[in-house]
From TrEMBL:
Name assigned to this protein: Repeat domain-containing protein
Membrane recorded as keyword: no
Native source species: Paenibacillus tianjinensis
Keyword vocabulary terms for this entry: Signal
Record's keyword annotation contains Signal: yes
Region (Disordered): 410-429
């Protein structure tokens, strides 16, 4: 049966409207990513003003790892006039990084001031009110080699004032003591020398709310530090530490009565033989801690041969952890399998399985096979590809196939990945 022209046109119109509603964008203009959309008509004059005020040999820079913009436009001092903050790099000078603030005046932009950055790399820029005066402060991270420093500036009336300057490994702007006022928590780690956490709050100058300076510095480094909810209505900090090139442990810190407290210490409970990033796995806004767990029946095998599960736990608000989710993450990061939470302690791996050859995931109480993963040569794949096997990925000269169905993952942290029924990595569909 043929569709008539009118029906085809309607279908095309629906498809077009759906793509428009989805917010798809095919053109990326760095200048259009300025923080204030209402200034889009002023882009040309702003760029002209920036370039005219920079040294001829200077180049605009953006924070490391920031794909957004090198131009920050806001009403910093809330006087009704927009300001633009940029940073630029000058070579062969004693000071390499400079910040510049311009102010919108009628139909143009006027340079208000230039200030020096203390480092060779611009690490981060945040515009937030951390002094409690309703105005936006400038929080900037700089680095010079392995050393990093955070500086807090306040801008008002055309003048810039430095409020706080401290070395850091990671800084977080939060409200750890939950008093409705922003605070800044700085983690500073130097291997074998210092490992401390300090929380500052502004009160006629930044004051130390509390500090933990007796943490153990004898590990390689922190590979992940994140702040946010660690339990219902409780803010905290989760620190993932690399013991060596492979193993790790996790520490959790909260603030109670303006005192920092370690609620989950980095000990045997959170030790793992593989680095796992703590994150919100189930999308409920609460950070989970990842642990490695051997499948049932594999406890006494050679650790190098065990196909470990990655299980995620929440802090229970007291002194323990409660289970949230479980995955199988391929050690070479080629695929991820998500399991139903109710399968915890039921799902296991057949002990005849061999990593990089064949894995069979079964329910221990019924023996039912949930999913199989196997590695095939091209010749082997040609023989089995029509018997229920699907392509999961490729590894050099091998095809990774699977058969079986799993429920689609709904974890918030995997929202930007293919996760159903199995997360495939590095293959084109």
């Amino acid at each position: 049966m043929k569709l008539n022209i009118r029906v085809l046109r309607r279908l095309a119109a629906v498809a077009l409207s759906m793509s428009l509603l989805s917010g798809c964008t095919f053109i990326s203009d760095p200048v259009s990513k300025m923080k204030s959309p209402e200034l889009s008509a002023d882009k040309a004059s702003l760029m002209m003003a920036i370039k005219s005020q920079m040294p001829a040999s200077a180049s605009l820079i953006r924070p490391a790892g920031d794909e957004d913009s090198s131009i920050f436009t806001e009403d910093l001092d809330k006087d009704g006039m927009m300001e633009t903050l940029v940073f630029y790099f000058t070579e062969n000078e004693s000071v390499l990084i400079h910040g510049m603030i311009l102010e919108k005046v009628e139909d143009g932009w006027v340079k208000k001031l230039v200030f020096d950055g203390d480092g060779t790399q611009l690490e981060s820029v945040d515009l937030k009110d951390v002094t409690g005066d309703g105005k936006l402060d400038i929080i900037t991270g700089y680095s010079r080699g392995d050393e990093k420093g955070v500086v807090v500036y306040s801008y008002s009336g055309g003048e810039l004032e430095e409020r706080l300057a401290q070395p850091y490994t990671k800084y977080m702007i939060d409200d750890l003591n939950e008093d409705g006022i922003s605070d800044i928590t700085i983690v500073y780690f130097k291997r074998n020398e210092v490992d401390k956490i300090t929380t500052y709050q502004f009160n006629d100058g930044f004051k130390v709310l509390d500090q933990l300076d007796n943490l153990d510095p004898y590990f390689n480094n922190y590979y992940n530090i994140v702040s946010g909810k660690v339990a219902e209505n409780k803010e905290g900090i989760v620190l993932d530490a690399a013991v060596d090139s492979r193993s790790a442990y996790t520490t959790m810190v909260v603030m109670e009565n303006n005192k920092l407290r370690v609620v989950i210490p980095g000990d045997a409970r959170t030790f793992k033989d593989r680095k796992i990033i703590s994150e919100d796995m189930d999308g409920d806004g609460i950070i989970e801690i990842g642990l490695l767990e051997p499948p049932k029946g594999w406890e006494y095998f050679d650790p190098e041969t065990i196909p470990y599960f990655t299980s995620y736990y929440k802090w229970d608000g007291k002194d323990g952890l409660t289970f949230t989710a479980q995955k199988y993450r391929d050690p070479a990061d080629r695929f991820v399998i998500d399991f139903l939470p109710e399968w915890h302690e039921r799902i296991t791996v057949d002990t005849k399985s061999v990593q990089d050859k064949s894995l069979k995931f079964i329910l221990s109480d019924t023996g039912e096979t949930v999913v199989e993963v196997s590695f095939f040569t091209q010749m082997e794949w040609d023989r089995v590809k029509n018997s229920g096997w699907k392509v999961l990925g490729r590894d050099m000269d091998k095809i990774i196939g699977y058969r079986g169905e799993l429920v689609q993952s709904t974890g918030g942290s995997d929202s930007d990945k293919i996760t159903a029924p199995i997360e495939r990595k590095g293959i084109d569909e």
